[in-house]
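Sample entry (376 residues):
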Amino acid sequence: MADPRGQTNALLSTNKLKLGLFGVNVSNGCAITKVPERFRGTWPETLAISQTADRYGYEALVPVARWKGFGGETNFNGTNFDTYTWAAGIAQATKNIGVLTTSHVPTVHPIMAAKQATTVDHISNGRFALNIVCGWFAPELEMFGRSIMEHDQRYEYAAEWIDIVKRLWSAEEEFDFDGQFIQVKKGFSMPKPIQKPFPPLMNAGNSGKGREFAAKYADMAFLHLDPSNLDTLKAHIDTYRRLAREEYGRELQIWANCHVTQRDTQKEADAYLHHYVVEMGDDEAVENILNIQGQQSQRLQQEKREQIKFNIKAGWGGYPLIGTADRIVDQLATLSGLGIDGILVSWVDYLDGLNRWQRDVMPRLEQAGLRNPVSA
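Predicted structure, serialized as tokens:
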């Protein structure tokens, strides 16, 4: 049976391979580079990019929940729009694309989150979705007087948080909630979201605990793809879907993020990748990220560390789509065949990338049966 939310929300469209943009609310987006054409994170830029993606038939706009930058010459992601009010503005300015908020659960009370999410759902006429993240960047949480929770505890907190949000979205009477972390007295919220029983949820859970959380609560699970280990991807995805279906009676979409460098020849694409990553990468910002994540240890061999740094600079460690339109479509067909339902893409220059993709990649995706033609 088709999900009734698909009548308003493009995230639940019938396209075999759905497309979204990642990071158009934060400076530099996903590319940690100093090139002059990089995304600066101004409102006119993010508005133009979002409206272009909407016009081209993309399904999703997914922002990054960020409160503080990572330093370096670019202060990577240091200019950042709040994701709830950003989504409200983008929802008003677009027509068809799904608009997400990415919400750090430790920094936003569930009553506030439920109300703001419902507001955006009404502004968008049922195109809203919520991306739930638990937080990992300690300096951000310290701004709120919070500390990083132990790994499994983060998901236990998030489970209480989303249980409250969902009850606020659906309960017709006041309710009390007495959890380990959160207490609510006579909770209630009106209006309810347009989407019933509530807007779609996204979560990126890669650990065992994270996968359990996503399987139980999310409509879209967000995976990190390792290009060197695609042989095991299909089995991993099948296991993920089976967990959601057999344990919780739910169906999961599987999404991943990809950074794109598209050119007319492979040589040109490789050269530009080298230019923005190796010649113009913001190495100080990357070192800061690795230090915060605890990966800059002596146990990492130098070669391994350099590869990690390259991948982060290129596009936050996303799957690389580098080359001609034909090569990119071949890679996307492979990912789709392995079970990927949607990809979030990023470019150094989003508008240039969107237009190249629309001209050369989108028609090929339609020919391959991965996308339906966009109605004029």
